[in-house]
Amino acid sequence: MAERGKLPPGSYVAELADLEAGLSVEVRADDAGRVNAVVGTRTLELAAERVGPSTYSVLVEHRVHEITVVRRKDGTLVYDGLSELQVQLVDRRRYRAGGAAGAAGGKEVKAVMPGKVVTILVSVGDQVERDQPLLVLEAMKMENDVKAARKGTVKEIHVAAGQAVETGELLVTLE
Amino acid sequence: MSAQVRRREPRLFKRVLIANRGEIAVRVIRACRDLGIETVAVFSDADRTALHVRLADYAVHIGGAPALESYLVKEKILDAAKRTGAEAVHPGYGFLAENTDFSAMLDDAGIVFIGPPASAIAAMGDKVAARQAMERAGVPCVPGSPDVIEDDAEVVRVAKEIGLPVMIKASAGGGGKGMRLVHRDEDLVGAVRGVRSEARSSFGDDRLYVEKFVERPRHIEVQVMADTLGNTVHVFERECTLQRRNQKVVEESPSPVLRDDVRQKMGAIAVRAAEAVGYVGAGTVEFLVDPRQNFYFLEMNTRIQVEHPITEEVTRTDLVRAQIEIAAGFPLPWKQEDIRQHGHAIECRVYAEDPFNKFLPSPGKIEVLRVPNGPGIRDDGGVYEGATVSRFYDPMISKLVAWGPDRKTAIARMKRALAEYQVRGLTTNLAFHRWVLDHEGFLAGEFDTGFIDREWKPDEVRKPLGEDERALLLAAAALAETEASAAAAGFGPATGASANGDGGASRWVHVARREATHG
Asked: Does residue A71 sit in the same domain as residue A115?
């Protein structure tokens, strides 16, 4: 009965690590919790209700989903059951062709946990393949390869061996 | 050795300090509460808002975030106990639990250490001495050299005499370090040198010994409890075969394979092992079991163990409460014949670690936590929604335990609980546990200690996100983004809420605005 405030439609470009080009995502919510979404060429009709500060209970053709959206400075984490997705959503109004907005998917390699840089394995100008180790990060007394999320060229290295880094800190920029 | 056991007039403590953090500190606080005992927590810089501090009656800051500056500093913990008037200290597991200097310091200050006497910890701490004590007591040990061997050539001779394969082990070794498996004669000399140098650099002690390698072994341990009046009982076994790099990940009780005659014999021998070192309190005797169910003494853990809840669920006991009562001078609350196994329990250790990336720790903030519940489920946790899993400590989130009248039901309940469990904001090993609970080998009870290293193939387990599911996740992300930016822009009338309170002007705007404010 009660009127829900109208939510203006949202229009984004989703940048994902495994896609070269951004994916268009548009959402339009009506005042009864129904959401019409167009993702690329797909159209979805959902019934979404918030059940927590960052969690929705979502029905899609009577199938129940519980989706949590964690918005962070360095991107958005989305969870549903066993699945997990990391994405950068860029407002279409601010998105310019050619990887504007700086943070194109996978171009910026960031620390996923706090630690210490042990070795840098690449140099500026190197061609790297997807999943190629770029540097070794020590965290919790274990050494871990930090890999390229996409194919590209090393544009800039922002850290040095021996340096301590925090979560989300920029390590390497690819282009 | 039993001369060192101090008897005291039975009297419960008024106040106990818990020299630990995380889930075990919470577990001990709960046991104290059940007994009407006040609790003192200690905390480092990283733990001011940790669950164990929030739940305790008193709390004392003991230093910097690294454990070496706080939870491992004996003097600071002793000082905290004195300042708060704690009559006893429970060390939990890890940290100072098996530190005899610490228990001696407490003793000198007239504070009770809730654990075994220093003599028993010391007797079991040195692998070679422990083995000799066990052989004297008639506890079966893995065939091997009776003593440390100084001479490398002698190591090789003894190894050949026992018969390959053998393990070359450092006397001071532990946690998977300082040991090497040798299958071929020609590898013996290199292995001996390797273990010696690793032992020297890791433990400052390069003494070593040789043991027969038991092939396809299972790791089964027996819980024992002893009081200060000379009573010792066993509380049956735990099957701890499922390990990853010597770290237990899934445990169950009873063992799905142990024959009952072997079970009874193993229990009796565990009691004998404890008595041989004058044991008091909660301890665990670990055995290696070969495919024909011959069993050999491995080591004794002189503390309460991580996996104790499965024993509690199956035997209907409270081991932590009993530890405290024993330390307070009371007799064991049960006689051997009263202790029975009822049904079946399984434990999954839920960690903030990424099973798809070498089980690398994944510390961070827990944004959303939905803990499972319902019949047969117990979750011993040390965190809460909004808490941070620190990079300074073991990244355990909780120990999830499922009990059922039989193994099949316990497995079904565990699967249900694992499906219900949601931890968002950091990566957990829940997907790994779901894989274990679906594995045919696990369901059949057919596994050995090499099971996980052989069977866990992350690339085959991980399913790529389907197009439909990805679209759904992106739609939800876009919805959240739209709501947040609308709220941040002050969009939507906040007035005009309806009288029935079910939404008013805009439910989503209210919620989204709250979220935006909380950053």
From this structure: no
